[in-house]
Each structure stands twice: as C-alpha cells, then as structure tokens.
Fold this protein.
Amino acid sequence: MDTAFRRMTSLLERRYHSFFPADRAVPFALRTDTGLSHTFGSGTPAFAIIARNTSGIAALTTLDASRIAEAYMRGDLD
C-alpha cells in the first residue's frame, strides 16, 4: 500500500498545483488506515480524505469522479 500511496500522492500533487492558483489553494490531507499521510498545500488542512484500502487508493488515482464516488459508497474512502 505504501508504494501505491506514494504514486497516488505524486500524481495528485501535480494535479493540485495545476488546478489551484497559488493564492487560492485549499490545503487538504490524504491519509490511510495504516498511518500514511500527505498534506497538499500549506497550512492546516481544511479537510482529509481517508483511503481505507488499496481500492480507495486505486479510485483516487484514476481522478474519475464516478469511480471515486463508488469507492466512497463502498466504504473504501471516507
């Protein structure tokens, strides 16, 4: 899960910086049940997404809203 989490955070970090202008970025955290954590942006995270398992990480990696919503409904993400 550690390798998949690092790969996902790297992908999302690039997307985060391309999506938000520097002065309007909203910091947030990604966490796992195993204690892995990554904060996007600077400052205190406004919210956290918790990947409960590798299926949650896989859904986030796709950046597909439907797959992420389905993972949330299954309990793979909180």
Q: What stands out?
A: The helical segments are 2-19, 54-62, 65-74. The two ends are 17 Å apart (CA to CA).
